[in-house]
Design brief:
The complex is a heterodimer.
Chain A lengths: L27 H16 L6 E5 L14 E4 L5 H11 L4 E7 H7 L1 H10 L3 E7 L34 H7 L4 E6 L3 H12 L5 E6 L11 H4 L4 H4 E3 L7 E2 L5 E5 L5 E5 L19 H7 L10 E8 L5 H12 L7 H6 L3 E4 L1
Parallel strand pairs in A: 1-2, 1-3, 3-4, 4-6, 5-6, 7-11
Antiparallel strand pairs in A: 5-11, 8-9, 9-10
Helix pairs in contact in A: 1-6, 3-4
Chain B lengths: L3 E5 L1 E9 L4 H15 L2 E7 L14 E9 L12 E4 L2 H7 L8 E5 L5 H6 L16 E5 L1 H8 L7 H5 L2 H12 L5 H10 L4 H20 L5 E5 L7 E7 H16 L3 E5 L6 H7 L7 E5 L3 H13 L3 E6 L1 H17 L3 E7 L16 H6 L9 E2 L6 H16 L2 E7 H5 L1 E5 L19 E2 L5 E2 L25 E3 L14 H16 L10 E2 L7 E6 L3 H13 L5 E5 L1 E3 L5 H6 L3 E6 L4 H10 L4 E4 L8 H13 L2
Parallel strand pairs in B: 1-8, 2-5, 5-6, 6-7, 10-11, 10-12, 12-13, 13-15, 14-15, 21-22, 21-24, 24-25
Antiparallel strand pairs in B: 2-4, 3-4, 9-16, 14-23, 17-18, 20-22
The chains are: A alpha/beta, B alpha/beta.
The structure holds iron/sulfur cluster.
Iron/sulfur cluster (SF4) binds next to loops of chain A.
Chain lengths: 341, 620
Amino acid sequence: MSDTAVPVQLKAKDFKSDQEVRWCPGCGDYAILAAVQSFLPELGIPKENICFVSGIGCSSRFPYYLTTYGMHSIHGRAPAIATGLATSRQDLSVWVVTGDGDALSIGGNHLIHALRRNVNLKILLFNNRIYGLTKGQYSPTSEVGKVTKSTPMGSLDYPFNPLSLALGAEATFVARTIDSDRKHLTEVLRAAASHEGSALVEIYQNCNIFNDGAFDLLKDADSRDDEVIRLVDGEPIVFGAEGQHAVVRNAHGGLKIVPTASVDASEIVVHDAHSSDTATAFALTRLSDPETLHHTPIGVLRHVERPSYDRLMGDQMSAAQSNGPGNLQSLLTGSDTWTIT
Amino acid sequence: MPKETVQLDRVIIRFAGDSGDGMQLTGDRFTAETATFGNDLSTLPDFPAEIRAPAGTLPGVSAFQLHFADHDIMTPGDAPNVLVAMNPAALKANLKDLPRGGDLIVNTDEFTSRNLTKVGYSDNPIEDGSLDSYNVHPIALTSLTVESLKDFNLTKKEAERAKNMFALGLLSWLYGRPFEGTERFLHEKFERKPEILKANLTALHAGWNYGETTEDFSVRYEVKPAPLADGTYRNISGNLALSYGLVAAGQQTGLPIYLGSYPITPASDILHELSKHKKFGVRTFQAEDEIAGIGAALGASYGGSLGITTTSGPGVALKSEAIGLAVALELPLIVVDVQRGGPSTGLPTKTEQADLLQAMFGRNGEAPVPIIAPQSPSDCFDAALEAARIATTYRTPVFLLSDGYLANGSEPWQVPNVADLPDLTVTFTTENNWTNEDGTTEFMPFARDPETLARPWAIPGTPGLEHRIGGIEKADITGHISYDPDNHDKMVRLRQAKIDGIAKTIPDLEVDDPSGEAKVLVIGWGSTFGPIGAACRLVRDSGEHIAQAHLRHLNPFPANTGEVLKRYDRVIVPEMNLGQLAMLLRAKYLVDAISYNQVRGMPFKSQELESAIKDVIANV
Ligand code: SF4
């Protein structure tokens, strides 16, 4: 509501609250927090106009560690609460911090509906493939057969691929990044922040207490080049230390990975995050192995324009008020009255 | 020769037909005509949950009862004087309520052997003498309607559909109702279907003319206008009055209204209505579920709107956790529960007041929430404003407990003068509210107003007051996360004391005891006000004494409630539940309150209440 001019350039430390951070030492959340605190000054938005809303879970303590406005709400409901805030306050930059249990299990419904409506929310989904705060049960992104306290003989549930889900839910911005890759994480945040509408950013986050090493395949120096598909908009999709793997179309309309040398350069799929067709983005999400995460694409998979719900709602409000505000007396009186004197 | 006119002081008409017969519309229009004429009135729509149950069956019967009088009345009436039955099912379902000698208008065209068999009549009751004790008017409503429309380019089905307008025309003639309003209404409704419009208008007039010419009706009736207080009146239903109250709450507080809601019977009309009022800064958001509805409303409150969610009992169950969050966050929020029969899906279109204890206690932890219950359809307007006052003054969620009877029932309403509405202006906190010992200032999100114990409402966008709130327990004053046992004990008590303190700002409970000699008090809450009041009149008319009090605030109770209860030898509590208010009164004031309960999905009948009250009086 305030039209504050951009103040003196803020620094990362301006976004660090005085609250003691209480995640387990070594938790991936620290790296994400640091990256976000360093990135926020870039937005150029006064910190009073930034608001973080979270649900429940380890990651959802996030708002307490920032100096912006914040609300730590209830399990799974952050997208719904943030929807009310964002759609009633178009002047704010509203961020949602959630986890795989919060967003995909108890709050799955709110997530998909926020995405389809394209509410102007930046949703950071910290995916550690486990329940941390409740001490180690499997989550909706855990691999099948996961042995945890609640699944001594292994979990039976097939996992969600959060990005496939988001694309199916008509999300206009879908991206994935990794907690330990500060540079990539920051780039993805930047792209998300620039998007008008819902931005879903899945951040692979290591829970070193209950699911340590869940993303090692994608992080270890000797495997990551062959396992992570780094998407760059407008560039042919190749990966590997020497660019020796390439993504091409398969016979069934999907994608497959082949040795770069085995195909003509023209056959290699050029990444187009702005394509209005979700088919290729969806096929990209399906390249990774749901169990091991072998061949996982990271980066911005989809980034398309569609008017945000907030804007559309604001437009309806302005249109309704174009002839001035309502007259309460005439509303209450209505057209069918009688008078007694 | 003009027909004789007989004066009546009041009439109760019930229109009953198939769900597809347009009985609710007929009832609404007759009500509007009656309102324009200046009678006092009260209505009771009664319809099935199914949109179109199989035609001609008992479950498909839809009815609308209207009580109108030349004096002030309090209920839609116990039993009709006139029953309009559009088919055998409607007759079968409603005849038991018509006293012997009552007028019975039946649409003979629908009394075919097939329709009769459908509802278990082996013989045609119109012909077999079983209706001899009623004043039966057999009228071929359908064929008369079709005949009157024979020059129109309509299918038979389309022509038949206008039979409700024929019936309305006839009844309008019978009771001398003006029907210009209905003509205007039809013009608007069928603006784009000129042929259907003409047909309906023609059927309406044909019905009126039929009354004038037929031998079957030898007299017309007249019910003179009621001497209501001077002013401008309109007819209003509870859901509409509640919606207007919420719009007015936005204007009077100066806050934008934000409704987050999921459709549910019988509350959806509030969502429909508020969605029309964007001009007043009202945002409506049809959420993906009940939880998202309240979540969005709460998020909007956080941002400085007046957040509202509207629902019925099952929806409240789903919203409970979020209401608890609102208690912890200490943000304004209005939760409208238009109660219906429960448990579970229960009776979606029928009334009940069995959510009182859910509103009172239906959350984890100590989570007190103020509760307000309107007592009549038009009172929903004032109750909404009062809910807004409490929510914004005390930064708390507030329950507004309406019910299906109030929601759909209607009565005349003296249109308030906007200038006389309470000023509820809200000011946000924009500056530091705390001075440290060294003279420096700070913002403390949980430093309370000493009078109301409310915490500051500093909305995002306010420079310098950035703070974090959440459902996890907060330290007094600073609002930091706190697991300290003493702090929790203190915060639980502070939140309770804040709600208890609202009693200081609500009016004392008033007792109506005209003779001053009553030894028995009847006390109720919510929509039973009318039936209880009517029952008390009956008791007094027969020379006995009874005191009546009605609670509008159920949490906290008015400060003098205990003192009032203790003044009487006996306290009787009629409720459309199994004794929820009685339980609260007994627990809080140690009074031996006597419950009188019905959970039939229908409002109390005043004669039944009268005898229940007399039983208690007799035993004092
Ligand atoms: S339990 Fe896991 S996710 Fe939670 S704080 Fe500890 S390491 Fe992080």
